[in-house]
Structures are given as structure tokens and as C-alpha cells.
């Protein structure tokens, strides 16, 4: 059910993203430029606003620029496919952006004396990095690891919604979203490890 929802949501977003991608390509904007611009936008939202407790502005900015992760991929596909450097840059910038988001959240929660929230934010940062690493390591070994309930876009949306609600006065929403995100991220790591294990077993029997 979760996978069906993800695919439906992504299909809906694709219909919105594709016209924008075509327009940017016609204007001479490269997918790599969009990747870097999206990361800069996330940094501004996270460090310039979120870390200072301006959660509504920070959440909206981060969510908006996080969606460029779909935009640059769509542009790359439309222009003939992603280059090796483009894929490398996209993955690297994703890690920079994720570190900024959860680092900013942890910093603000620490200033508020919310030690439980800090622990959840740091766990999200570690688990999110592991989600991405397991996939990258599997692909480096010739297998796939692109499965799981909490891919990067979903993870940023969860923390974004939590930050937005807390900024609007729903006090524990951010901490709750962080613990939820930590749980689904760890579950996703388990899904990917199991997926790779099954592939490795099949290869071993050949």
C-alpha cells in the first residue's frame, strides 16, 4: 500500500515537474546547476532559518528546494540521461543538504533544552546516511538497493511537516516526526539489507 501511494504521488509530481524541466532546458540551464541551486536553497532554509527557530519559513524553504531532487533528475532524463559526474554530484549534494537539515534541527532543539529531540535528530542523520550508503554499496557490487518505505524525498517531507506544525504551535510535532522518521529509516535500512541479501544468495547459487 505504501509503495502504491509513493508511486501515485511521484506520478502526480512528475506531471508538475516535467513542464518546468523542459522550460529550464530550453533556457540553457543544466541539471547540475539545478542540483547545486537546490542544495544552496536547502542550506539557506535549514541554517538561515531553521537553526534560528524560524521553523515555518525554514520548513517551507527546505521542502520547496528538496523537490528540485526530482527536477534535476527529470532534466537529466530529458537531455539524454544522467552523466557519471551528474550522478556523483547529485548524491554528494544530497548528503550535504541532509546534514544541514538534521544538524540545524539538532542545534535548535539543543538550544531549547530538548535532549530527546536532539537524540532523535542525530539518529535520523545517521540512519538516513546509512539508507543511502546501503543503496550505493549494493550498486557498487552490481546489485540493486532501491527499495524501502523512506527514500530521501519522503524523509525530508516528514521532518518538514513536523517543523511546520511545531512552528505553527503544535509543540511536540517536530520531535514526534523525528522519532517516526528514525523508525522508518531504520526499517528501510533493514529492507535494503534484506533485498541485497536475497540477490547475493541468488548469485551464489548460479
From TrEMBL:
The active site is at 94 (proton acceptor). A CDP-1,2-diacyl-sn-glycerol binds at residues 32-35, 73, 77, 83. It is a multi-pass membrane protein. PROSITE patterns: CDP_ALCOHOL_P_TRANSF (PS00379). Its EC number is 2.7.8.-. The keyword Transmembrane helix applies. Mg(2+) 1 binds at residues 69, 72, 90. It is an enzyme of class 2 (transferase). Mg(2+) 2 binds at residues 69, 90, 94. The chain crosses the membrane at residues 116-134, 155-172. Its cofactor is Mg(2+). Keywords: Cell membrane, Lipid biosynthesis, Lipid metabolism, Magnesium, Membrane, Metal-binding, Phospholipid biosynthesis, Phospholipid metabolism, Transferase, Transmembrane, Transmembrane helix. Pathway: Lipid metabolism; Phospholipid metabolism; phosphatidylinositol phosphate biosynthesis. It is found in: Cell membrane. Belongs to the CDP-alcohol phosphatidyltransferase class-I family. Homodimer. Catalyzes the conjugation of the 1'-hydroxyl group of D-myo-inositol-3-phosphate (also named L-myo-inositol-1-phosphate) with a lipid tail of cytidine diphosphate diacylglycerol (CDP-DAG), forming phosphatidylinositol phosphate (PIP) and CMP. PIP is a precursor of phosphatidylinositol (PI) which is an essential lipid required for cell wall formation. This is Phosphatidylinositol phosphate synthase. It comes from Micromonospora humidisoli. The lineage of its organism: Bacteria, Bacillati, Actinomycetota, Actinomycetes, Micromonosporales.
Amino acid at each position: 500500500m505504501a509503495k502504491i501511494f509513493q508511486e501515485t504521488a511521484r506520478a502526480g509530481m512528475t506531471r508538475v515537474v516535467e513542464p518546468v524541466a523542459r522550460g529550464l532546458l530550453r533556457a540553457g540551464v543544466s541539471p547540475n546547476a539545478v542540483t547545486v541551486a537546490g542544495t544552496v536553497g536547502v542550506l539557506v532554509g535549514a541554517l538561515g532559518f531553521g537553526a534560528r527557530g524560524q521553523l515555518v519559513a525554514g520548513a517551507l524553504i527546505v521542502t520547496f528546494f528538496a523537490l528540485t531532487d526530482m527536477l534535476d533528475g527529470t532534466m537529466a532524463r530529458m537531455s539524454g540521461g544522467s552523466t557519471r559526474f551528474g550522478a556523483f554530484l547529485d548524491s554528494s549534494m544530497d548528503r550535504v543538504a541532509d546534514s544541514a537539515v538534521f544538524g540545524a534541527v539538532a542545534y535548535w532543539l539543543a538550544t531549547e533544552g530538548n535532549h530527546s529531540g536532539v537524540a532523535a535528530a542525530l539518529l535520523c542523520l545517521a540512519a538516513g546516511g546509512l539508507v543511502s550508503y546501503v543503496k550505493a554499496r549494493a550498486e557498487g557490487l552490481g546489485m540493486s538497493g532501491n527499495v524501502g518505505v523512506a527514500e530521501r524525498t519522503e524523509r525530508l517531507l516528514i521532518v518538514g511537516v513536523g517543523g511546520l506544525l511545531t512552528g505553527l504551535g503544535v509543540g511536540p510535532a517536530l520531535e514526534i516526526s523525528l522519532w517516526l522518521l528514525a523508525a522508518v529509516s531504520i526499517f528501510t535500512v533493514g529492507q535494503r539489507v534484506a533485498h541485497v541479501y536475497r540477490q547475493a544468495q541468488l548469485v551464489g547459487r548460479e
